[in-house]
Amino acid sequence: MTTLHEPAVTSPDLSVWPVSTDEPRVGAVSVGGVPLAEVAERFGTPVYVLDENEVRERCRTYRAAFPDAEVLYAAKAFLCRAMVHWTAEEGLGLDVCSAGELELAVATGFPPERIVLHGNAKSPRDLEAALRLGVGRIVIDSPSEIARLAAAVGPGGHQKVMVRVVPGISAGGHDKIRTGTDDQKFGLSIADGYAQHAITRILDQPQLELTGLHCHLGSQITSVKPYLAAVRRMVGLMARLHEQHGLILTELDLGGGHGIAYRPGEQALDLTALARKVRAELSEACAVAGLPVPRLIIEPGRAVVGPAGIALYHVLSVKRTGDHTFVAIDGGMSDNPRPALYGVRYAPRLIGRHSTAAPAAVTLMGRHCEAGDVLDTDVELPSDVRPGDLLAVPVAGAYHLSMASGYNLVGRPPVVAVDAGTARLLVRRESLDDIRSRDVGL
Ligand SMILES: *Cc1c(COP(=O)(O)O)cnc(C)c1O
């Protein structure tokens, strides 16, 4: 039903959308100068849209907030060749956790010396690729890695390493993304002495040069405080290492985990405050310990790319049972496993048309054969939502496609970059041919 009179609508809240988002008429949403309905029309749905300038601006914001630090983009949040270029061009380094991420970056021209390799369980192939390609640093995560790495480097060789330390701090948006506490799979604990023990063993390996300590507290952290606590614990360890071994470390990597707002009204981590307070805490702690101030390294992933991405879906079906409405889209847990994994919530909205129908709470379902494939159980959409409608999910740039799966063989969605009024395909949709070509047995 259409009405002749525009009702007095409050303009939609675009606070979690990219800065370039424009909505001249309600529903006619464009990002990077490109109407999203046009992207959906041209590339089909589901499709992921990435605002190139938003990514670049976020890289620049980091460089400006942390001028003397090394900023490494955490590739696991999202990686493709264009992303590698943008990261390199904006002066960031790269943090990778597999031979795959590493090979893609180096094959795209990323300088290997600006890459750091992580991983709680690095495969022989990961280490082989790291040494062959000459990565800047390898972060040691377990005692057994030390001898393995030293042997792979060889007696005449040389490799810079850091040690992943567990500072014993709980922070992060969900239990499954807290990594700074004792008793989880990452790193070596200060509390039980494992970290100190591993460091002693590294110092016995002449081909390994220990440049610094590393920690990563978790993800989706919105307060500065845990980072300051981490600085104190890490400098405390550095002071003990100095006493015991005369060791002076030149780098301190505080990892990533910087939180972002997924829905209007949510809080993001304040980067300016983080930069200022971490710098002050680090200077003071080092002064007290009589240590020179190490160079700071940070590793944001989500905060660089998350808010720059938008997922577009078509509504496939609408079921009304009792007072419940189920709206199913043409994507789901295979392109975005986060709701199923961590119960996170988004702010999806109808775009492409202006509905004057009253809003109604609906359950937004994915298309997969899994009762848990629910994007959200309580989303406000116009009550006349119907098959064929276009839905947009903002803040979809991080940990969606990088965690995408092949479930139900629907094929992973494409990635389209928008910038200055043009849309270009970065990663094409996974086709049935792609799926068939891997299936080589009979
Ligand atoms: C995942 C991870 C990051 C990035 O985390 P975000 O929450 O995306 O900022 C950085 N460093 C390490 C070691 C990680 O595992």
UniProtKB/TrEMBL annotation:
The active site of this protein is located at 369
Pathway assigned in UniProt = Amino-acid biosynthesis; L-lysine biosynthesis via DAP pathway; L-lysine from DL-2,6-diaminopimelate: step 1/1
Reactions catalysed: meso-2,6-diaminopimelate + H(+) = L-lysine + CO2
What InterPro entries has UniProt attached to this entry? Answer: Ala_racemase/Decarboxylase_C, DAP_deCOOHase_LysA, De-COase2_N, Orn/DAP/Arg_de-COase, PLP-binding_barrel
| Coiled-coil intervals, chain numbering | none
Enzyme Commission no: 4.1.1.20
Q: Which PANTHER family match?
A: DIAMINOPIMELATE DECARBOXYLASE, GROUP IV DECARBOXYLASE
Q: What is this protein called?
A: Diaminopimelate decarboxylase
Source organism: Streptomyces griseochromogenes
